[in-house]
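thought: fold this chain, then report.
action: predict
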Amino acid sequence: MGRFLGWVSSYLRRRREERRVQAIAEERAEALLRDSLSEEEWRCWQQFGYIEVGSRLHPQRRYLVAPDTPVIVLERGRAVGAICIQPQERLPRADRLLAKKLLAEGDEPTFLKVGNWIPLLHGGVSARELMAPTRAAGTLALIWLMIVGSMGVLALLQWQGAVLVLLALLTWGALAVRGRAAR
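observation:
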């Protein structure tokens, strides 16, 4: 029993130290992000959880970049798809956002080549409808529809836990939208 308690104690000490180091990394990443964004980008990030990046290759295209979701692609103000791109290493949330932004701005051809394109299933959705703060569930539902459209049924079955969570969010989003429409 003593050996087991020693192992648990050691494990808990390591986990505390990992969390401490991670918190320091998150603080540094947030400071770097603050220094790297314009005032307008910082306000958008704080208010909506994403930043908008203009395309240099396609004048009518804009990218809505968030750290934890695919990059939403807008053309003429309407969502046409998304680009799924993630760093290979585990990074703080603010660093993931900054990495996506800098890649989209600085090397858009590589951004488009490396990222996985997720087509939009049902026509375009306006940016206002997509990113309105009161429609967060609708945004998750849209991303879910794009992911489902790009995967086969068997691949979905392998996602069992994530599928259940996303289906619950999709249902909640549909009920929230239906509830607002009834008012």
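thought: worth noting. The two ends are 61 Å apart (CA to CA).
final: tokens above.
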